[in-house]
Amino acid sequence: MTTLPAIHAALPDLTPRALEIAAKSSASVYDCLYVALAERESCELITADDKLVKKLQGQFPFIKHIGSIP
User: Fold this and answer.
1) In Å, what is the CA distance from 32 to each residue of 2, 5, 21, 49?
2) Phi and psi (nearest 5°) for 18?
């Protein structure tokens, strides 16, 4: 690598949204940090966590189960 990646302090910005998602869904705050990050970055969240997909995919269609990826 000739260029180091930029490091950004993401946790403080994501925590309030992750807490909001967790409170409404009973998902863990840890999992919801990933959801909040994907939401903020407007990208898909690919996971093998069946429970997370079942709990949150209806509200957050960008959450995809790894098994659905061709």
Assistant:
1) 33, 24, 6, 12
2) -65, -40
Q: What is the pLDDT of residue 35?
A: 97
Angle at Cα 20 formed by Cα 54 and Cα 47, nearest 5°?
35
pLDDT of residue 6: 72
Spatial CA neighbour of 16 closest among 34, 45, 36? 36
- The stretches in the chain having pLDDT less than 50 are none
Cα 65 to Cα 32: distance, rounded to the nearest angstrom: 15
Q: Count how many residues are written for the chain.
A: 70
Distance CA 14, CA 39 (A): 10
Query: pLDDT tens-digit profile of 4-19?
Result: 777 666 567 888 999 9
